[in-house]
Amino acid sequence: MGDIFEAVREDIAGEHSAIIQYLYHAYATSDEELRGKLESIARDEMRHFKWLNEWLVKNGQKPSIDRAPVISTGSLKSLIEADIKAEEDTIKQYIEHKAMTDDEELIALIDRIVADERSHREEFAKILEELESRDDAETGNPAEEKSGPQLAAHEAALLQQALEHEYTSLLQYLYHYFTTGGSDEYEDFSIDEMKHFGWFAEALAERGFQPLLEHRVEELKSDPESAAKSNLTLEEQAIKKFNEAREKIQDQEIKDIFDLALEHETYHAFSLKKELEKLKKLSGKRFTVGSLKDNGKEEKR
Ligand SMILES: [Fe+2]
Ligand SMILES: [Fe+2]
Ligand SMILES: [Fe+2]
Ligand SMILES: [Fe+2]
């Protein structure tokens, strides 16, 4: 019998790739209704990702933000076919993993997730039917469907950079949400970053650029003080980059997105500074009590 924690980590990597794959597919169509449906399925996968990580942490394991490979390009029809296949493979995998455990909570969680995956498979099948009944022209190369406001390549690069920053921040907040005992603030901030991610990605897609969904999360710290510090660094980088970007962009709609994201990042940075002050005071107190105790035993002079 395999390692259940390894198996759950594999499921989490699958959920992460499902989120990103479905978002790629959402950004590949200009049909707003279809994009909405795909984004809504991606949001379900985000909850699965979160629940499984919470289960891992509750059982003394580190959370996982690994991601399995994704299918990001192709005709819209071929993408939806890939999504149906992804759901079928996922359901099979969950059923295999469920047989490896007698943990009641995990079994209940898997049952709930599998019910969602079955409903996703049905939704994708309906979408495919709908696409097949439409004109061939509409199911062709998604890049040719685009017709929206124009954007210069250097402006697109700035949006892309912001998008990568949001993906990184969102994962980092989620990770710290898992490791610092479920801080509401980190959960809220990760939701804010997820929204920003969506704004930047949609702004690119609507202007004919394929958003690239890659992050650059490096080393992740688990203790609250290091976590708050590295989150604050990310926020300060965001504020600097976004301020520079908004000056170089002509498109008013994109300037407005940067402005609103900047308001949020400023608030995030403010809260993190407060949190750090609080944590520093706490660790100062611990240090004092510790040194007093140690003085008795280890005083050498
Ligand atoms: Fe899922
Ligand atoms: Fe699914
Ligand atoms: Fe953000
Ligand atoms: Fe932020």
Please describe what this structure looks like.
The protein is an all-alpha fold. The protein has 2 domains: 145 residues, Ferritin, core subunit, four-helix bundle (Ferritin, Up-down Bundle), CATH 1.20.1260.10; 153 residues, Ferritin, core subunit, four-helix bundle (Ferritin, Up-down Bundle), CATH 1.20.1260. The chain has 8 helices and no strands. The longest helix is centred in the C-terminal third of the chain and has 47 residues. The C terminus is likely disordered. Bound molecules: fe (ii) ion (4 copies).
What would you say about this model in short?
The chain is an all-alpha fold. 75% of the residues lie in helices and 0% in strands.
What tags apply to this protein structure?
mainly alpha; Ferritin; 2 domains; disordered C terminus; binds fe (ii) ion
